[in-house]
Amino acid sequence: MKKKRIKLKTEVYYYLAIIIILIIGASWGIKKYQQYQYQKTNEYKLTEAGYSLENSQMLIKELTDQDISYILAKPMDDNILNLMKEKYFLKENFQEYYEYHLANKKVALTDVVAIINCHIDNEYYSLDLKTDMTKNYAILVNKYYQMPQDYIPEDLVSVKMDYAWGEYGSIKVRQIVMDKFLDMWNAAQAEGIYLMISSAFRSYAEQEIVYNNYKENQGEAYANKIAAKPGYSEHQTGLAIDIFSKTNTNRNTFQDSDAAKWLVNNAYKYGFILRYPADKVNLTGYNYESWHYRYVGEEIAAYIQKNQITFDEYYAYFLNK
Ligand SMILES: [Zn+2]
Predict the structure, then answer these.
(1) Do 269 and 298 form a contact (C-beta atoms < 8 A)?
(2) Which CATH architecture has domain 129-319?
């Protein structure tokens, strides 16, 4: 009887031992399998490539699988992470930014982002992008975005000769521009500055005449430098005005006048921005024009004034959806 009990006990231990071995084996197998599975993840591959776990997770969260494959095909580079920290970084442009950076290593990353966002890496007039006319006061027209040939704003009004040169009826702007310009005019007047509009709405056909004149007389390269091609001029929007003062109408010296200085500091309050600033020629594609103002609305104008970016950059980041 005693012997049988001992035998039973031994058998129990025996089976227990087998079960324990099986459990250990299984958990080892599961662990190995999980390890094998993990090695196939982007997180593993990125950390192996030299990115920290935190950065790897950030890259995976922010970018597409295709972007990650692209990153893994290149040597580890902190500038990939630095690019993503840029204020106006757009995910969809990631590979374009990085390619541009590799080809132009001396260009600061902030500028790389701005250049790609504004399409400046392309030849002027080479993209044939269509201006999204539903954006109303915030439509974008530049050397890449073209307006419809037949577009003429429906709410054009003639500027009174108290505020513009030429014959009555020759200077037209959209109603909102007239209203806001008058507010601005009064504020400037109160400080002894007399603003005057020299040019405003220009139809496609009128811009064609301006452009062709330059082209015929001074050649295409010069024409492209000095005037917009028809369809690509902001003046066709009815939202752009060339502003001088009653005492200074000279394109070469207006920038130093009190009126120009007043406009730089105050126009945004009325929804206008200096569209082609001196230090942004590389982003706007236009030489400095101290007289060319564009109505974009007060909210956008205030942002642009505060952050000192171009409308092209603003549009790419906030409106191009
Ligand atoms: Zn202009």
Answers:
(1) yes
(2) 2-Layer Sandwich (3.30)
